[in-house]
Design goal:
Layout (H helix, E strand, L loop, with lengths): L8 E6 L1 H19 L5 E7 L3 H10 L5 E7 L14 E3 L9 E9 L3 H11 L5 E9 L12 E5 L5 E2 L15 E4 L1 H5 L2
Parallel strand pairs: 2-3, 2-5, 5-6, 6-7
Antiparallel strand pairs: 1-9, 3-4, 8-9
The chain binds guanosine-5'-monophosphate.
Guanosine-5'-monophosphate binds next to strand 5, helix 3 and strand 8.
């Protein structure tokens, strides 16, 4: 059943079928890479990654455990403050494990850069990242994305876990938010 597009969404950028196919392909690639390594932990970066994380984790064909972290976000604004802060840390250490960071989107790159730095001190066997969306035009710092879902243009996207002011997270597609939403708030 096709759900109607929310009137506050300008257009669907990535539909459900495209998301499904890409996440399945990423999971296969990750499973193949970590199959021989063992001790894999997925670290989901809240809140935006929660749906991507759930879909990706369920498609992995290798054993793994799950952790979450929360970092400070943009709040309700669509512009970055440039400041990254840890709001919630891991429940268990990751020393001796292979870490795969799971992020919703890389924009300026500051969050991913912070995470990569932060995990250097944790004595993981390896640290890699898996990112659903990337906006290359917006990059302020160069960061390496190891597994990428889609490159997108410089637009504010919502759905599939991503929000605007805590709204739109449960849309089943990635949509471009109508500028009228943030211009009127
Ligand atoms: P960065 O540190 O790379 O600038 O930003 C990463 C974070 O910015 C993401 O985890 C996400 O919370 C937020 N972000 C950047 N662009 C978008 C967007 O288009 N939509 C949403 N919902 N969040 C975004």
């Amino acid at each position: 059943m096709t759900r109607p597009i929310d009137p506050l969404i300008d257009r669907v950028l990535i539909d459900e079928a495209q998301l499904d196919a890409r996440v399945t392909a990423m999971a296969a690639q990750i499973s193949a890479h970590y199959q021989a390594q063992g001790n894999l932990v997925l670290v989901g970066i809240l809140k935006g990654s929660f749906i991507f994380m759930a879909d990706l984790a369920r498609r992995l064909t290798i054993p793994h455990r799950i952790e979450f972290m929360a970092l400070s976000s943009y709040g309700d604004l669509s512009t970055s403050s440039g400041e990254v802060r840890m709001m919630l840390d891991l429940r268990r250490p990751v020393a001796g494990e292979h870490v795969l960071l799971v992020e919703d989107i890389v924009d300026t790159g500051l969050t991913l850069q912070y995470l990569i730095e932060n995990f250097r001190a944790r004595h993981a066997l390896s640290v890699a990242n898996c990112v659903l969306l990337s906006k290359p035009e917006r990059r302020k710092v160069q960061v390496q994305v190891d597994y990428l879902g889609f490159e997108i243009p410089d637009v504010w996207v919502v759905g599939y876990g991503l929000d605007y002011a805590e709204r739109f997270r449960t849309l089943p597609y990635i949509g471009v938010l109508s500028p009228s939403v943030y211009l009127n708030s």
